[in-house]
Give the backbone structure.
Amino acid sequence: ELFNQGHPEEAAGEYEKALKAAPDFDHAWGSLGYVYFGLQKYEEAQRCFDSAIKLNPADDFYYGEGALVQLKLGSREKALEMLKTRTAPADRETPVDLITRETLAAR
């Protein structure tokens, strides 16, 4: 909520505190990654999404967000690899997948 209220640095601090108390909480890693993405701290965001994936590889959201981060970092190949390794069935694209694929196709 702090992020949506225009306080992304405070939001990041709160997620970091939560992760010190519960380092295996994949949702907190994903949320922190989302905050870092919004702050344009893409390497930190990728680290968070990678941690979330390690903890919960069945959550496709983390792969899609990681692919978007890789696009921002200029790595089209890594973005595609993130999408290929996600666990969703190939016939079910998430909205993030669709946006990422369209972005990659436009390049």
Notes: The chain has a mean pLDDT of 87. The longest helix spans residues 8-21. The two ends are 34 Å apart (CA to CA). The helical segments are 8-21, 26-38, 42-55, 60-72, 76-84, 95-106.
